[in-house]
Amino acid sequence: MSLLLGVFSAFCLLGAALSQDMPYEDYLAQIQACPSECHCPRNFPSSVYCDNKGLKRIPKIPPHTLYLYLQNNLIEVLSKEALSNATKLRWVNVNRNRITDGGLEEGALGAMPQLLQLYMSDNLLTSVPVGLPRSLEQLQLSRNRISKIPAGVFSGMDQLSLLDLQGNKLMDDAVTEVSLKGLSGLVQMNLAKNQLSSMPTGLPPSTTQLFLDGNNIEGIPSEYFKGLPKVAFLRLNRNKLSNGGVPRNVFNLSNILELQLSHNQLTEVPFIAQGLEHLHLDHNRIKSVNGSNICPVSAEALEDYANESTPKLRYLRLDGNGIPPPIPRDVVTCFRLLRSIVI
């Protein structure tokens, strides 16, 4: 019986290893090298869970680890030695620790040459780390104390598609063409809840999603989006935008799908692009809406129900402005695809 159990156990282990495309010998080595402070699931041996353990240091990570979870600890140092064997890492999560600029040991980030996603939110960094792996696709640094983006820090990082810097202390002079150079593949940039007083410069033309909520931005240059032709999702909630800071055609963008301008100081509805589907204007100072003024197409075009130029607006939020109901008929006539209006 004991022999049969032994054979059965070995078969199960082999099956787990094969399910991870990991040779059996590597599987055994990975399980045996699992740090005592962590958990390495036998059915998913490439993942190492060291989160929520009260750790003050990173234990030695096994060599066949792809996913490393270290969030919610007391770690102050990202150690090169602890990561030296884990050269296959694809995903590292060190959110909610106590890592400082000085706690980033030289070469520690470079020890992960295949890393795709790095999560370092809710730490104590004051600068974007240097020496980032060029393989990165997502970098999350939200809610640190970052006020500086070193020149050249993103050089050669054309694979990075998501950069999250929300909730830091970045000012206008930190976000420039020089500091962002190298991000030729960037899709999503999150600069919400910083200390910007103007629209950031240096963003690559590939930017599709731009989040700038909770800053102190008062105006948008009339030609600003000419260098950002792919912008589809734009959030500028909780800034200081007034009519004078929003040129009439500044949002006339061919790819824009969602525009959020809630909690600003607008007294008029800005120009609505033909392809825009979601518009948030709640909690401004708008007292009335005139469909003739905001409709992006002519009355003749509206008469042709099959016309491809029909405005695509489907969701319009206007509550918190004091606009008396009902919505004017000319608004409904223009935006005939509207499915929801909040007033």
Q: How does this structure look, described?
A:
- The chain is mostly loops and 343 residues long.
- The chain has a domain of 120 residues: Ribonuclease Inhibitor (Leucine-rich repeat, LRR (right-handed beta-alpha superhelix)), CATH 3.80.10.
- It is built from 6 helices and 13 strands.
- A 13-stranded parallel β-sheet has the order 1-2-3-4-5-6-7-8-9-10-11-12-13, with no helix packed on it.
- Strand 12, helix 6 and strand 13 form a beta-alpha-beta unit.
- The termini are far apart.
- The N terminus is likely disordered.
Average pLDDT metric: 91
CATH-wise, what's the superfamily of the domain at 1-120? Ribonuclease Inhibitor
**CATH architecture name of the domain at 1-120:** Alpha-Beta Horseshoe
How big a fraction of the residues is strand? 5-15%
User: Major β-sheet, in short?
Assistant: 13 strands, parallel
Instruction: Count all strands and give the number.
Output: 13
- If you consult CATH, what is the topology of the domain at 1-120? Leucine-rich repeat, LRR (right-handed beta-alpha superhelix)
Number of helices: 6
Query: What order do the strands of the largest sheet run in, or round the barrel if closed?
Result: 1-2-3-4-5-6-7-8-9-10-11-12-13
Sheet/helix structural class: little secondary structure
The amount of helix comes to: 10-25%
N-to-C span: 74 Å
Radius of gyration from the CA trace?
Answer: 26 Å
Low-confidence stretches: 1-19
- The CATH first-level class of the domain at 1-120 comes to Alpha Beta
Q: How do the helices and strands follow one another from N- to C-terminus?
A: HHEEHEEEEEEEEEHHEHE
Shape annotation: elongated
